[in-house]
């Protein structure tokens, strides 16, 4: 299976640069994975496709303002640091630009001394381990100095930080939003629950590994970066009970999907607990627990496009994507959604 098998041509102007005013007014493509049949709807119509007894599984991770702009203490050169993963209390694995200015021992100043840092090591793929020094509470300083780490294909400035956050975001730790969840409003979630659909929360802190391009020709040679996930006891029970009663487990986003598929055993039973997952789902994978998926439109040749192709058959997905391009759907993080049933 070649990476190029997952290429499609996307005009630049279809990449959504800004979130819509009303989250639930984005478009929704409904794809029947058995027939390949496609319907065009508005996202709030999702309620018509959910049945009493179904369970909607959301990822309640919260994006941290992980992008820090600073200067080198010795030269005053500008430097950008993106927080990826907390390794110890004040030590983070980071992505630093430009990397050549961030050798071990380099010291960086953010916010006129409010936050200081020292590069202590170079690790995988040139990432830097950085130790931070500050007075007070790190999260509060980060909130003051940090910017939302928008993907590189979004070039517009985000006016409201909360628009790159789901309405149910709870646990700090992501370097990117679980974007399928951005379409839900509190009102829509209330209507869905009033219909008899259960809502389960899991956590997967999204790392940038999810968005890294696949650089190998052979898909199976690609290595996923590990991401931390958490499934609470009561939420695992809710999801398992849904399955046992004949309801559908519907994942909101590829991150919820990857959490459930990582934590489910061979008998299709979801286990509570936490850990690190490197699960990479591509065609040929047998899904253990997910019955349907709400997701955005993903980058050509990406691991996320491979995941949806594993769920709904690559030919059907590529055809649906061609139709989305023809119909001028909006793509990627702030774009439109797809429901694969």
UniProtKB/TrEMBL annotation:
Instruction: State the pathway, as annotated in the record.
Output: tRNA modification; tRNA-queuosine biosynthesis
Q: Tell where it localizes.
A: Cytoplasm
Q: Which keywords appear in this protein's UniProt record, sorted alphabetically?
A: Cytoplasm, Glycosyltransferase, Queuosine biosynthesis, S-adenosyl-L-methionine, Transferase
User: Principal place where this protein is found?
Assistant: cytoplasm
SUPFAM superfamilies per record: QueA-like (SSF111337)
Q: Which Gene3D superfamilies match?
A: QueA-like
UniProt keyword annotation of RNA-binding present: no
Give the domain of life.
Bacteria
Q: What class of enzyme is it?
A: transferase
**What InterPro entries is this protein classified in?**
QueA, QueA_dom1, QueA_dom2, QueA_sf
Q: Does the keyword Transcription apply?
A: no
What's its catalytic activity? 7-aminomethyl-7-carbaguanosine(34) in tRNA + S-adenosyl-L-methionine = epoxyqueuosine(34) in tRNA + adenine + L-methionine + 2 H(+)
Q: Name one Pfam family in it.
A: Queuosine_synth
Q: Name one GO molecular function term.
A: S-adenosylmethionine:tRNA ribosyltransferase-isomerase activity
EC numbers: 2.4.99.17
Task: Relate the assembly described in the record.
Answer: Monomer.
Q: What does this protein do?
A: Transfers and isomerizes the ribose moiety from AdoMet to the 7-aminomethyl group of 7-deazaguanine (preQ1-tRNA) to give epoxyqueuosine (oQ-tRNA).
What is stated as this protein's family in its record?
A: Belongs to the QueA family.
Q: Which PANTHER family match?
A: S-ADENOSYLMETHIONINE:TRNA RIBOSYLTRANSFERASE-ISOMERASE
Q: Which HAMAP family match?
A: QueA (MF_00113)
Protein's recorded name: S-adenosylmethionine:tRNA ribosyltransferase-isomerase
- UniProt source species: Laedolimicola ammoniilytica
Q: Which gene encodes it?
A: queA
């Amino acid at each position: 299976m070649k990476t190029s098998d997952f290429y499609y041509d996307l005009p630049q102007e279809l990449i959504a640069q800004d979130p819509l005013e009303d989250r639930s007014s984005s478009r929704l493509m409904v794809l029947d994975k058995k027939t390949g049949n496609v319907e065009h709807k508005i996202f709030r119509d999702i309620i018509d496709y959910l049945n009493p007894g179904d369970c909607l599984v959301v990822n309640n991770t919260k994006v941290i303002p992980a992008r820090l702009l600073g200067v080198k203490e010795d030269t005053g050169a500008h430097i950008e640091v993106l927080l990826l993963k907390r390794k110890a209390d004040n030590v983070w694995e980071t992505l630093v630009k430009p990397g050549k200015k961030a050798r071990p021992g380099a010291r960086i100043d953010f916010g006129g001394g409010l936050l200081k840092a020292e590069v202590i090591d170079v690790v995988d793929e040139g990432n830097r381990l950085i130790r931070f020094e500050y007075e007070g509470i790190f999260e509060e300083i980060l909130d003051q100095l940090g910017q939302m780490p928008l993907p590189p294909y979004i070039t517009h400035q985000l006016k409201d930080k909360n628009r790159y956050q789901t309405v149910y975001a709870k646990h700090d730790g992501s370097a990117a939003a679980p974007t399928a969840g951005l379409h839900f409003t509190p009102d829509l979630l209330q209507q869905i629950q009033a219909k008899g659909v259960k809502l389960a929360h899991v956590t997967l802190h999204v790392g940038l590994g999810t968005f890294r391009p696949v650089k190998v020709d052979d898909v199976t040679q690609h290595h996923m970066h590990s991401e931390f996930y958490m499934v609470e006891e009561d939420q695992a029970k809710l999801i398992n009970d849904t399955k046992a009663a004949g309801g559908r487990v519907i994942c909101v986003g590829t991150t919820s999907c990857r959490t459930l598929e990582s934590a489910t055993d061979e008998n299709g039973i979801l286990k509570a607990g936490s850990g690190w997952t490197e699960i990479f789902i591509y065609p040929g994978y047998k899904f253990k627990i997910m019955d349907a998926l709400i997701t955005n439109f993903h980058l050509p040749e990406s691991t996320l496009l491979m995941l949806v192709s594993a769920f709904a058959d690559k030919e059907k997905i590529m055809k649906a994507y061609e139709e989305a391009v023809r119909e001028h759907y909006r793509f990627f993080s702030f774009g439109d959604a797809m429901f694969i049933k």
